[in-house]
Amino acid sequence: MFRGNMKKSGMDRRIYMDYAATTPVHPEVVKAMQPYFTDVFGNPSSIHSFGREAKEAVEQARDRVAALIGAKSEEIVFTGSGTEANNFAIKGIAYASVQGISRGRSGNHIITSAIEHHAVIEPCKFLETQGFEITYLQVDKYGLVDPENVRKAITDKTILVSIMHANNEIGTIEPIAEIGKICREKGVYFHTDAVQTAGHIPVDINELQVDLLSMSAHKLYGPKGVGALYIRKGTRMVSFIHGGEQEHNRRASTENVPGIVGFGKAAEIAKREMSDEAEKLRVLRDRLISGILENIERTRLNGHPVNRLPNNVNVSIEYVEGESVLLNLDLAGIAASTGSACSSASLEPSHVLLATGLPPEIARTGLRFTLGRYTTMDEVEYVLKVLPKIIKRLREMSPIYRRK
User: Fold this and answer.
1) Which residues form the catalytic set?
2) How many CB atoms lie within 10 A of CB 307?
């Protein structure tokens, strides 16, 4: 059983600070899922008792996920991931407009931001090859989208606005409720990628005034391979995957029953424990931020200093490459990242940090620590002990730093 994120193997210490990439599955979630691999194995579409048992489990999970965000159960569609949910939202609205079945505007214009996750940016780039026009809104130095820029960008051809609830790299929480109000006034569908926020900070679809919202189970101590898309009642979309009539004829494919059950249980736990966990994480986050900034010169915090996720620490440390720091941290038993896990193989500077105005040479120095349920103050202090030594050693090897 996973007790925490600090383990010892011999004399080695292992600390996990990459919770934004994925989280360990909660023991209660594992327990809830187990029967659905062996004992309750029916296909939810089957009408016999085995199928009905599986169907009941799926619907109970749907209730729990809906309750996490203040939605109705019938407005939740389970998907294979948060990426699929984003693709479904964007392409589903786009093609509904093309086919003339949308209850929103007709047109070919979509608005998003320059700092979205690749799961939003790449579908938008694809739609550009299909004749759609995409506006990528710029952000300020903290990564904030100005709601007035959204208003100015909306035209009579705009069919969708997609702005993430909080950025996965720098943790900035966007003014979604203000943007949602503008979209509603203009009669434009509004989608938000809430993969980093659902289960971690309060998310209410009515307060945010969104029509579509994406979630992912493995970001909130549930299993990988299952996500969900909230679709407000009355929203007209084209199905993303064609085949059977599963998920109220929204998403064909036999449901991943164990994964969905796990998602439901994780959502139930998050709703119960989110507030206390966030309070704990803010203390750890602030200690890590202050310790890094006070002990390592030429370092800056990325993202908004206040309106940020309770577990996110993203810093740029000049005169060192983020990847080099990451490898040295790993050798010291500390798992962190330089940004999104989905782009970890790329050596290009973070598109998010570039969008906030950082030059490429500084954007390449970005380092992200994301904390979670099992993070302790002892682990934070250990990182603060190890990191300055790593930076000192790497800087001594840098000819640029020696010439400064």
Assistant:
1) 342
2) 15
Q: How far is CA 208 from CA 151, 175, 213, 378, in A?
A: 16, 9, 10, 37
* Whether domain 27-269 has CATH 3.40.640.10: yes
Question: Which of 321, 301, 401 is closest to 361 using CA atoms?
Answer: 321
- Would strands 312-317 and 109-113 be described as parallel, antiparallel, or unpaired? unpaired
Domain boundaries, the chain: 6-25+274-403, 27-269
| Lookup: tokens for 216 | 């992912």
- Distance between CA atoms of 243 and 241, rounded to whole angstroms? 7
149 CB contacts (<8 Å, ≥6 apart)?
137, 138
Query: What local confidence, expressed as pLDDT, does residue 341 receive?
Result: 52
User: Is the distance from CB of 299 to CB of 318 less than 8 angstroms?
Assistant: yes
Q: Are 210 and 178 in contact (CB under 8 A)?
A: no
Each residue of 281-313: pLDDT tens digit?
Answer: 999 999 999 999 999 999 999 999 999 999 999
CATH T-level fold of 6-25+274-403? Aspartate Aminotransferase, domain 1 (3.90.1150)
- Residues recorded for the chain: 404
CB-based burial label for 345 (10 Å; 0-12, 13-18, 19+): exposed
Q: How far is residue 112's CA from residue 115's CA, in Å, rounded to a whole number?
A: 9
Apex 28 CA angle, 23 and 30, nearest 5: 70
Model confidence, pTM = 0.94
Record the tokens describing residue 175, joined without a space: 């003014």
DSSP3 helix / strand / coil % (the chain, rounded to 5): 45, 15, 40
